[in-house]
């Protein structure tokens, strides 16, 4: 988010550089957790968490590091899911190629959506992305290949690279984990690259970035496309895990959900979206068996986060660590 | 039978009428959004939920108190405006000094809560609300049949939009409002109670949405999801019109409703996406919107 909201995050980012040993320690712990998780928790649940964590991390690249709130990221997530599911089920593509196709499709969509949306800033950007995603939703509702209300069901998982059988749940799990780790490290690399620094400069003061000679719109579009492609990667993998691509994946509630994960975990922090995804997916799993209406709970968390908890869990944790250090 | 481009005239007029009705609601809702945004700099995502509340309040009044359409046309919007006062006082007033995006996130959460509750209580199927007895039946205009109630909705929405426009452009209250939009600190220094002005503005915007909801109740069914679908379309309308001008929002609303109706006649597959396509085209040619100043 723009200047006022994001300024605490700047401290986080610089603090991140100073305490890189802590970051590395946390990453090793995280990696270990991911590796042992399927033996402790139901693997499909962890896979769902990982897909959404990658989705939220991709979204956060845009909101947290460029200050652009996209309210239409479901279009990339769900669009890629449809393409991947269709490519496997109807064309008999192997999973790796179908995922590549889905991700590529999301990237192309990102170019188109991004080109239109970056013509306006702030609130307008959010409304435009939302409207574009809604347009895509109606397209998916009517297009013959998406299967309308039913979606594309029973997508075979197939054999990765021709020899790794993904119908085995552990094989599937470690593939998803690998995709997540690669995606996450890629985002980490982007954020800490010169390109990422320019993105943060745009977030902090767009006019100044322009006056320094940066073609701001190119950087914004670049970030948008990367974010869309990674969201698509998450959607493609999700379609294989659940063997399903449906309208839920492209609906605006899905766009809202990824905003919530990022907000709850901490906008502009690398770990925030991951923590947010763990919490929101767990919460939804829990609510599915209770009689509480899910949107009411999700909406209430939104309101509470905006009013009291804008830095998110990881943001608050970082601030607390910094205070403790003095 | 008279035909236009191979479409029979009554069918064409029928779709145009539906378009104009939809346009009336787009106009009233984008008007409310523009009024709220102009003053509070908040994009009110809960606008759809407030529209739905208006329809439900009218239905409650009829079902539990036997109060009919005409009193409901006043009482239900007042009820929604009151809800708006509470929302503004308790929630929105705390985030004015933050980035405007937080306003969108807060009202998005609010919309989820309100619509989720009504969905939980009343399911997704709609409740019927009958047309008031005064407007049963239809006018036969020779080239088309015009149901009386639909004619009333169009006239009523034009009156509502004009009244709101006059209120903001021609009255003292409107002058305060416009001045406070330009420079709230200065207006406060002149002794105008700006926080109260903000509350009032939000209440008016919410009330407008509620009024549109009551008018919509006999046309569409009273359903918890009725606002969810319309609010994103209204966002697109607002982007197309540009939020700078109240008149712009209203005119764009009507015109886009008609365009949508025409699309239904000539290329029905695109009728649900045509407004978004127009939004893209407008953004490519005139990023500030048709009536926007930048």
Automatic annotation (TrEMBL), chain A:
Top-level taxonomic group: Bacteria
Principal localisation: membrane
Pfam families: BPD_transp_2
Gene Ontology MF, one: branched-chain amino acid transmembrane transporter activity
InterPro entries, per database record: ABC_transp_permease, LivM-like
Keyword presence, Glycosyltransferase: no
Transmembrane segments: 24-45, 52-85, 97-116, 123-145, 172-191, 221-246, 258-280, 292-313
Topology class, membrane: Multi-pass membrane protein
One GO CC term, this protein: plasma membrane
Leader sequence residues: none
Keyword terms: Cell membrane, Membrane, Transmembrane, Transmembrane helix
Protein's UniProt keywords contain Transmembrane helix: yes
Subcellular location: Cell membrane
CDD domains assigned: TM_PBP1_LivM_like
PANTHER family cross-referenced by the UniProt entry: ABC TRANSPORTER ATP-BINDING PROTEIN (PTHR30482:SF17), HIGH-AFFINITY BRANCHED-CHAIN AMINO ACID TRANSPORT SYSTEM PERMEASE (PTHR30482)
Name the record gives this protein: Branched-chain amino acid transport system permease protein
Organism: Camelimonas lactis
From TrEMBL, chain B:
Compartments, record wording: Cell membrane
A molecular-function term among this protein's GO annotations: transmembrane transporter activity
GO CC aspect terms: plasma membrane
Domain of life: Bacteria
Residue spans crossing the bilayer: 12-35, 42-62, 68-88, 100-122, 151-168, 200-220, 232-259, 265-285
Pfam families to which the protein is assigned, alphabetical: BPD_transp_2 (PF02653)
Keywords: Amino-acid transport, Cell membrane, Membrane, Transmembrane, Transmembrane helix, Transport
InterPro entries referenced in this protein's UniProt entry, alphabetically: ABC_transp_permease, BCAA_transport_permease
Chief localization: membrane
Membrane topology: Multi-pass membrane protein
BP-aspect Gene Ontology terms: amino acid transport
Record flagged with keyword Transmembrane helix: yes
Keyword Cell membrane: yes
Family: Belongs to the binding-protein-dependent transport system permease family. LivHM subfamily.
PANTHER family: ABC TRANSPORTER ATP-BINDING PROTEIN, BRANCHED-CHAIN AMINO ACID TRANSPORT SYSTEM PERMEASE PROTEIN LIVH
Protein name, as recorded: Branched-chain amino acid transport system permease protein
Organism: Camelimonas lactis
Lineage: Bacteria, Pseudomonadati, Pseudomonadota, Alphaproteobacteria, Hyphomicrobiales
């Amino acid at each position: 988010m723009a200047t006022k909201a994001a300024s605490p995050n700047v401290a986080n980012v610089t603090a991140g550089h100073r305490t890189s040993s802590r970051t590395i320690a946390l990453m090793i712990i995280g990696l270990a957790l991911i590796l042992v998780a399927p033996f402790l928790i139901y693997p499909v649940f962890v896979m769902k968490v990982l897909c959404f964590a990658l989705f939220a991390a991709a979204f956060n690249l845009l909101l947290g590091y460029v200050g652009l709130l996209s309210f239409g990221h479901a279009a990339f997530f769900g669009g890629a899911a449809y393409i991947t599911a269709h490519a496997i089920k109807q064309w008999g593509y192997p999973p790796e190629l179908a995922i590549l196709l889905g991700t590529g499709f999301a990237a192309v969509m990102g170019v188109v959506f991004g080109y239109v949306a970056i013509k306006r800033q702030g609130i307008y950007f959010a409304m435009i992305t939302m409207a574009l995603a809604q347009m895509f939703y109606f397209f998916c509702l009517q297009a013959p290949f998406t299967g309308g209300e039913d979606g594309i069901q029973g997508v075979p998982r197939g054999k990765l690279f021709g020899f790794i059988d993904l119908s085995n749940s552990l094989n599937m799990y470690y593939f998803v984990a690998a995709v997540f780790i690669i995606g996450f490290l890629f985002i980490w690399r982007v954020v800490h690259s010169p390109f990422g620094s320019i993105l943060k400069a745009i977030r902090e003061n767009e006019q100044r970035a322009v006056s320094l000679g940066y073609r701001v719109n190119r950087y914004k579009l670049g970030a948008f496309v990367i974010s869309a492609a990674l969201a698509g990667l998450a959607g493609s993998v999700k379609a294989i895990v659940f063997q399903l691509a449906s309208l839920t994946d492209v609906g605006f509630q899905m766009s809202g959900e990824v905003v919530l994960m990022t907000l709850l975990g901490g906008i502009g922090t690398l770990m925030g979206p991951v923590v947010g995804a763990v919490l929101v997916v767990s919460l939804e799993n829990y609510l599915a068996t209770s009689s509480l209406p899910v949107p009411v709970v999700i909406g209430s968390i939104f309101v509470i986060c905006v009013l009291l908890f804008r830095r998110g869990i990881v943001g608050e944790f970082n601030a607390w660590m910094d205070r403790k250090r003095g | 039978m008279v035909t236009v481009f191979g479409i029979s005239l009554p069918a064409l007029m029928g779709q145009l009428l539906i378009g104009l009705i939809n346009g009336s609601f787009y106009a009233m809702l984008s008007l409310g959004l523009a009024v709220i945004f102009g003053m509070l700099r908040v994009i009110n995502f809960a606008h759809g939920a407030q529209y739905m509340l208006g329809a439900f309040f009218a239905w409650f009044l009829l079902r539990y108190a036997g109060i009919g359409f005409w009193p409901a046309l006043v009482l239900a919007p007042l009820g929604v405006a009151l809800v708006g006062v509470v929302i503004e006082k308790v929630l929105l007033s705390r985030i004015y000094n933050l980035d405007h995006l937080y306003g969108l996130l807060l009202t998005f959460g609010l919309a989820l809560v309100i619509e989720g509750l009504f969905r939980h209580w009343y399911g997704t199927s709609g409740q019927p609300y009958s047309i008031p007895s005064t407007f049963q039946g239809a006018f036969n205009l020779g080239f088309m049949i015009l149901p009386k109630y639909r004619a009333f909705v169009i006239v009523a929405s034009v009156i509502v939009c004009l009244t709101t426009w006059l209120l903001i452009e021609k009255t003292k209250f409107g002058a305060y409002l416009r001045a406070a939009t330009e420079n709230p600190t200065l207006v406060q220094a002149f002794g105008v109670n700006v926080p109260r002005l903000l509350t009032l503005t939000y209440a008016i915007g919410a009330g407008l949405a509620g009024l549109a909801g009551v008018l919509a109740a006999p046309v569409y069914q009273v359903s918890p999801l009725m606002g969810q679908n319309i609010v994103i379309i209204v966002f697109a309308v607002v982007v197309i019109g540009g939020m700078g001008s109240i008149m712009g929002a209203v005119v764009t609303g009507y015109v886009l409703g008609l365009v949508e109706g025409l699309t239904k006649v000539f290329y029905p597959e695109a009728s649900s996406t045509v407004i978004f396509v127009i939004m893209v085209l407008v953004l490519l040619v005139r990023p500030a919107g048709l009536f926007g100043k930048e």
